[in-house]
Specification:
The protein has 220 residues and is an alpha/beta fold. The protein has seven helices and nine strands.
Length: 220
């Protein structure tokens, strides 16, 4: 655990940015390889950035863990096919390349309601990815299914989402009435929960928002 090498896909996203910060600050992590369609703004001696085409990934460097945080929306992607190319194809391609490079532990940012048989296309694609990742021979896989994510999208150059703003305000006002797994959750809590669970994972573990929030709040 004292010299971990990590692959992170999606470091410029809401959760991915938080994971990158956490990994770079972790003294047990000696190297972080960031895969993305553009470079993260962070600079650090431990960070190596790889701007890649996820449809034609190069061989990955040897590593211990992989974190999959690639994601988009159908609105941004422009079509269901384009959405699937990012949320399913790209994430799975990274997972396969990481396994070929010797990675034994994997973490995935999925979504609440994910299921291969879900009626909603978004949730169905997320569920299909979860199933595909769970069938891979990693020693440990952790799947995070956050409820509505909140965080500073403006810092990423992304527009503020009205639904997230309203949900965050509602959560503060009547949060005690909302079940733990359905309350909005900060992207930093999702990142911290994954970073804490993946290095010790055995088999497949699914984390819902309530468990992620408790993991971050628990004394260390």
């Amino acid at each position: 655990m004292a010299s971990r090498v990590v692959i992170l896909a999606g470091a410029t996203g809401l959760v991915g940015r938080e994971m990158l910060e956490g990994l770079l600050a972790d003294p047990t992590v000696t190297a972080v390889h960031s895969l993305g369609r553009r470079r993260p703004t962070a600079q650090h001696p431990k960070l190596t950035t790889h701007v890649v085409d996820f449809a034609a990934l190069p061989a990955m460097p040897p590593a211990d863990e992989v974190y999959l945080a690639l994601g988009t929306t159908i609105k941004v992607a422009g079509s269901q096919a384009a959405f699937r190319a990012v949320d399913y194809d790209a994430n799975l391609a990274v997972a396969k390349a990481a396994w070929a490079a010797g990675v034994k532990k994997a973490g995935l940012v999925s979504a609440m309601g994910a299921g291969a048989n879900a009626k909603v296309f978004y949730s169905r694609v997320k569920g299909e990815l979860e199933d595909a990742l769970s069938k891979m021979p990693f020693e440990g896989t952790v799947i995070a299914r956050p409820s509505l994510l909140v965080g500073n999208r403006q810092a990423l150059g992304q527009p503020t989402r009205q639904g997230e703003t309203l949900a965050a305000a509602l959560g503060k006002a009547v949060g005690f009435l909302i079940p733990a797994n359905y309350k909005p959750i900060d992207a930093s809590a999702v990142a911290a929960a994954l970073l804490g669970a993946v290095p010790f994972a055995k088999g497949t573990t699914v984390l819902l928002s309530g468990a992620m929030r408790r993991a971050v709040q628990a004394p260390r």
